[in-house]
Recover the amino acids of this structure.
């Protein structure tokens, strides 16, 4: 039985939270992971820049043999998913639709809060996807979370303080009952955020929802462990060190790639 080769793309190591979920939920595939670490962050860049960077990355993955693509970067999906998907010849899945599906399924009050990068919030991609599913969304940019996660401050008092400031007043007693993590880095803050939002609030991680969407498309398997190869545009040592936190396992086989800018 042939195993599908899935390319997973993100602006950096954050998308390894999506690969992590894929490895657990879809062990019947092999993977290529591309982290555009030299050009991160995407979250504060323009639509044109993000589209150009993301297209070069997914085209690279297609050239390496990827038979389907998961665009794990929320910002790239929010700003340019259609352009990215139409630049390649294999099917592509983004993280916003699965995240919105899971958020809508979880919310009883049909009101949700989405936290994400500035780019994702200003595109209103999550708000629009949730509106289509009957959910009213409040979107909040949390730009400090990405550097705090990169720093490894996952359970730090500064991060907790920042989270309180960002989320203050968003969950009043009759308000939203669902928090959607609309950025690849935020799943690592889930335990901390759990202590900041009221217990009745369900926290949705689009990494898990995206992996579940891929699993629905793929059946079968030969029982072998997935093979994973990694590509990064900046230091492979740095990618390995930072990435192991996100992937929760050893990272080997990182190849440095220089893409035209
Ligand atoms: N990968 C980005 C996202 O999910 C976060 C990091 C960045 O700003 O590039 O939105």
């Amino acid at each position: 039985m042939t195993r599908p080769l899935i390319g997973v793309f993100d602006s950096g190591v954050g998308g390894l939270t999506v690969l992590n979920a894929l490895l657990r939920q879809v062990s019947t595939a092999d993977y290529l992971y591309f982290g555009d670490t030299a050009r991160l962050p995407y979250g504060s860049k323009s639509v044109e820049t993000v589209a150009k960077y993301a297209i070069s990355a997914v085209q690279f993955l297609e050239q390496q043999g990827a038979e389907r693509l998961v665009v794990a970067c929320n910002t790239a999906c929010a700003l340019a998913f259609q352009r990215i998907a139409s630049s390649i010849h294999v099917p592509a899945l983004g993280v916003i639709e699965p995240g919105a599906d899971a958020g809508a399924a979880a919310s009883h009050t049909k009101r949700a809060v989405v936290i994400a990068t500035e780019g994702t919030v200003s595109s209103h991609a999550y708000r629009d996807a949730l509106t289509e599913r009957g959910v009213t969304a409040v979107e909040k940019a949390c730009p400090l979370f990405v550097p705090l996660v990169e720093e490894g401050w996952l359970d730090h008092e500064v991060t907790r303080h920042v989270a309180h400031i960002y989320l203050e007043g968003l969950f009043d007693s009759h308000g939203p009952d669902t928090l959607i993590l609309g950025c690849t880095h935020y799943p690592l803050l889930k335990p901390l955020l759990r202590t900041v939002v009221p217990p009745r609030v369900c926290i949705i991680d689009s990494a898990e929802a995206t992996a579940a969407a891929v699993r629905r498309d793929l059946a079968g398997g030969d029982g072998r462990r997935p093979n994973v190869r990694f590509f990064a545009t900046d230091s492979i040592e740095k990618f390995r060190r930072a990435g192991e936190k996100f992937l929760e396992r050893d990272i080997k086989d990182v190849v440095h790639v220089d893409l035209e800018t």
Summary: The chain has a mean pLDDT of 94. The longest strand covers residues 5-10. The longest helix spans residues 47-63.
